[in-house]
Amino acid sequence: MNPTMKKLMMSAILLSLPILGNAQDKTADDYVEYRQGVFNAIGWHFKKMGPMIQGRIPYDAVEFKRHAEAVAVLSHMPAEGFVKEAKDSTLPTRVKPDVWFQTERFNTYMDDMIKAAAELAEQAGVEDKDELRPAYGNVAKQCKACHDRYRERG
Ligand code: HEC
Q1: Among 29, 91, 105, 147, residue to substitute to test ligand 1 (most atoms within 8 Å of Cβ)
Q2: In ligand 1, which atom is closest to the CA atom of 40?
Q3: pLDDT score of 23
Q4: Residue 20: pLDDT band with limits 50, 70, 90
Q5: Residue 151: beta bridge partners?
Q6: How crowded is residue 78: how many other Cβ atoms within 10 Å of its Cβ?
Q7: Which end of the chain is less packed: N or C, by CB atoms within 10 Å?
Q8: Is the CB of 107 under 6 A from ligand 1?
Q9: pLDDT value, residue 5
Q10: Residue 71 near residue 38 (C-beta atoms within 8 A)
Q11: 78 vs 19, 44, 70, 81, 111, CA distance in Å?
């Protein structure tokens, strides 16, 4: 590595240090932004699969699997944005207050999504998209179930 590269590397490392703080540095707003960001990413990938299942765009097994795997990985992540500290945020949010009183019940909805998303990712890759319809439908059902119960109408 030449000296200029080395200097650049060092300053990049130093610049990144402040953002490597621990969880205690997180504010209520950070949690809200985090969970909304994760949900938006889940929605991003989820919405790419529906049109393939419905035949509105050509089915591509590799692309479908990529999106299914993204949803499966991301499905583990929103829970981290529903900690009690997040309650004090004044940012706009669609979380219903029930979430904070029914933690156990809310978590079962989260687990159901995680399970359904893992099954879809597992099955994805097949040649016939119709085989994926039930698993895809089951994920959609879990999204809707939680939204109906714990998300304010937008
Ligand atoms: C355990 C409950 C739960 C599950 C399961 C769930 N969501 Fe959500 N989702 C929420 C809540 C609550 C919000 C509102 C978050 C906020 O505003 O802070 C939300 C927000 C979103 C948003 C952000 C935009 C908006 O409408 O507020 C998208 C997109 C989204 N969810 C998609 C999905 C998809 C797709 C799935 C299924 C793969 C899913 N969600 C599963 C509870 C859930």
Answers
A1: 147
A2: 29
A3: 55
A4: low
A5: 95
A6: 19
A7: C
A8: no
A9: 78
A10: no
A11: 20, 14, 13, 5, 11
Q: Which residue in 137, 130, 131 sits closest to 116, CA to CA?
A: 137
Give distance in angstroms: CA of 151 to centre of ligand 1: 7
CA 147 / ligand 1 centre spacing (Å):
6
Task: Name all domains of the chain by residue range, CATH numbers in brackets.
Answer: 26-83+102-150 (1.20.120.10)
> How close is the Cα of 127 to the center of ligand 1, in Å?
30
CA quadruple 95, 100, 101, 102: dihedral sign = positive
Contacts of 32 (CB under 8 A, 6+ apart): 81, 86, 89, 91, 93
The annotated binding site is made up of 143, 146-147
Per-residue pLDDT tens for 69-93? 999 999 999 999 999 999 999 999 9
Q: How far, in Å, is the centroid of ligand 1 from the Cα of 75? A: 10
